[in-house]
Amino acid sequence: MSCFSCFSSKSSRRKRGPVPAAASHYQEAPVHAQPENPRRVSAEATNKKDESKEASNNIAAQTFTFRELASATKNFRQECLLGEGGFGRVYKGQLEKTGQIVAVKQLDRNGFQGNREFLVEVLMLSLLHHQNLVNLIGYCADGDQRLLVYEYMPLGSLEDHLLDLSSGQRPLDWFTRIKIGLGAAKGLEYLHDKANPPVIYRDLKSSNILLDREFNAKLSDFGLAKLGPVGDKTHVSSRVMGTYGYCAPEYQRTGQLTVKSDVYSFGVVLLELITGRRAIDTTRQTGEQNLVSWVSTFPLSCTTNLRFGAFKLV
Ligand SMILES: Nc1ncnc2c1ncn2[C@@H]1O[C@H](COP(=O)(O)OP(=O)(O)O)[C@@H](O)[C@H]1O
Ligand SMILES: [Mg+2]
């Protein structure tokens, strides 16, 4: 991981990136301060029988040439476009060699922005394997091209089903909402409690919860993930990164990152699942634009205790 410090990471990206903070006394921790052997993440995380089976089934991420991925996505044709985020565009494609349907994320090439996130994502997803994390099939680092190849998730993201409903699209039923929340929670539990050292995801939001045909949830986008504190440490210091509206206020204020920062974001996603509203929605009237602030105007008996990621609806 120490090689990451060779790459700069600017983040003038849409949607996610540095989150404005009240204090400025913290810095992104030098990556070489992280535990030296990231392979422990998968080695020690596979204690349980079923998990070790999962891990042993995983082959290391494959490398692809740019030509292979251009041909898989019909030259990144508009009709293959699945979506666009802070990192770049995502296309549906079919690998020529195997016929497998995949999702190909092409990183924006503006001055190598996001190269660090690219490396973190490849490393993290090569080491972490769980049924509620998206599977990385491979990557391409041809010249200045950076692409990631994932398993294709046919139902897209939670955002597509909860917040971006087209006319005629039926809202998710309660059972499905709970199923998705549970899947996301299991993915997070694996990162926090089973991976060793723990992994802080830092970008939990509805657009990063992808869905398979049965609405099983898988967490995606590990470019901002960070190894959590080990030993006596209670937190890791970090430049504040994430997505506005999902970022824990204490992390935003102090730059001190703990697994609880993810739990806060999980609480925001739960609120989105319950209300069908966006974490931040500037089209709404003042007072209702920030979901957490709006919810906290309701009586205590029916509000969410986001600080602990738990909620009680009466
Ligand atoms: N593996 C995948 N399978 C299917 N669709 C995907 C996959 N990865 C991403 N997408 C789609 O592409 C969109 C953009 O993804 P991404 O670049 O991660 O940005 P963001 O998470 O900020 O929306 C997602 O919201 C989702 O709809
Ligand atoms: Mg995403």
TrEMBL record:
Tell me yes or no: is Phosphoprotein among this UniProt entry's keywords: yes
* UniProt-recorded Gene Ontology molecular function terms: ATP binding; protein serine/threonine kinase activity
Example of a GO biological process term: innate immune response
The family database entries (SMART domains) matched by this protein are listed as: S_TKc
The record's section on InterPro entries has: Kinase-like_dom_sf, Prot_kinase_dom, Protein_kinase_ATP_BS, Ser-Thr/Tyr_kinase_cat_dom, Ser/Thr_kinase_AS
Q: Which reaction does it catalyse?
A: L-seryl-[protein] + ATP = O-phospho-L-seryl-[protein] + ADP + H(+); L-threonyl-[protein] + ATP = O-phospho-L-threonyl-[protein] + ADP + H(+)
Q: What class of enzyme is it?
A: transferase
- Record's compositionally biased regions (Basic and acidic residues): 37-54
Chief location category: membrane
- CDD domains, alphabetized: STKc_IRAK (cd14066)
User: Residue spans with biased composition (Low complexity)?
Assistant: 1-10
Any transmembrane segments, and where? none
Topological type in the membrane: Lipid-anchor
Give the superkingdom in one word. Eukaryota
Q: Can you say where in the cell this protein is located?
A: Cell membrane
Instruction: Please list the residues that bind ATP.
Output: 105
Alphabetized Gene3D superfamilies for the sequence:
Phosphorylase Kinase, domain 1, Transferase(Phosphotransferase) domain 1
Task: Using the record's annotation, list all stretches that form the Protein kinase domain.
Answer: 76-314
Q: Where is this region: Disordered?
A: 1-57
EC number(s) per UniProt? 2.7.11.1
A single Gene Ontology CC term: plasma membrane
What keyword terms does UniProt attach to this protein? ATP-binding, Cell membrane, Kinase, Lipoprotein, Membrane, Nucleotide-binding, Palmitate, Phosphoprotein, Plant defense, Serine/threonine-protein kinase, Transferase
| Family the UniProt entry places it in | Belongs to the protein kinase superfamily. Ser/Thr protein kinase family.
What is the designated name of this protein?
Answer: non-specific serine/threonine protein kinase
Q: Which organism is it from?
A: Rhododendron griersonianum
